[in-house]
């Protein structure tokens, strides 16, 4: 993979990160970790970016592992394989804990680990052609891959998550929306436009407050109610003191400059 395999562009305060290997179904090769994390670093280090969007070029969102590049019918170095998988897992963690809100614009199939890229984002907007394929077992691999067991149980509960993973199920756009895996479905030719509108509605909020909200959303699912309340109180007290809050409060009360 090269840097051109993951493209970054700006639309105002919204950064679009596009997987750009359409001829390979946007599959994950040996350099996928460094290339995508490099793009995420670029976006996160840009102070003018408030929201990010992850999508794919072509008819596929993310095709999972590049079978010819990272797999072989012959035995390979187990240490190399372990580090490759750990690298993919770093991407999942990076997306999940990304400093800015990040939306998946799922333009087509997300296969195996490709589905997990979408699940790791804050939420996903689906094209009519979108689908998640939990197809690990078809090539003799575990469904315990790139956070699938965590994300699906979190979204769906243990029984339904087990059913999808153990049967290697395909979830199309309509079922995905009904299950809560997709927040909305839009026509394929309007996916970029509609996702940009949603992303802009987030960008219009206070950037600091939005980051604080995301932090709290992430931590609250990892502990009990009391822990969530304590963490929210700590973060909200910081927001109370922020200049962005003071300015917006003044505007809301008619005591500050418009803007």
Outline the structure in words.
- The chain has about 260 residues and is of the alpha/beta class.
- It has two domains: about 5-205, 2-enoyl-CoA Hydratase, Chain A, domain 1; about 205-250.
- Helix content is about 45%, strand content about 15%.
- The protein has eleven helices and ten strands.
- The strands form two sheets. It has a six-stranded mixed sheet with strand order 1-2-3-5-7-10, with helices on both faces. The chain has a four-stranded mixed sheet with strand order 4-6-8-9.
- Helix 1 runs parallel beside helix 3 and helix 9 packs antiparallel against helix 10.
- The longest helix has 19 residues, at about 80-95.
- The termini are far apart.
- The mean pLDDT is about 90.
Radius of gyration, taken over Cα atoms and rounded to an integer in Å: 19 Å
Structural class: alpha/beta
Distance between the termini: 43 Å
Q: What fraction of residues sit in β-strands?
A: 15-25%
User: Spans with pLDDT under 50 lasting ≥5 residues?
Assistant: none
CATH architecture of the largest domain: Alpha-Beta Complex
Give the total of domains. 2
Listing every helix as H and every strand as E from the N terminus to the C terminus, the arrangement reads EEHEEHHEEHEEHHEHEHHHH
Q: Tell me the overall shape.
A: globular
CATH fold title of the largest domain: 2-enoyl-CoA Hydratase, Chain A, domain 1
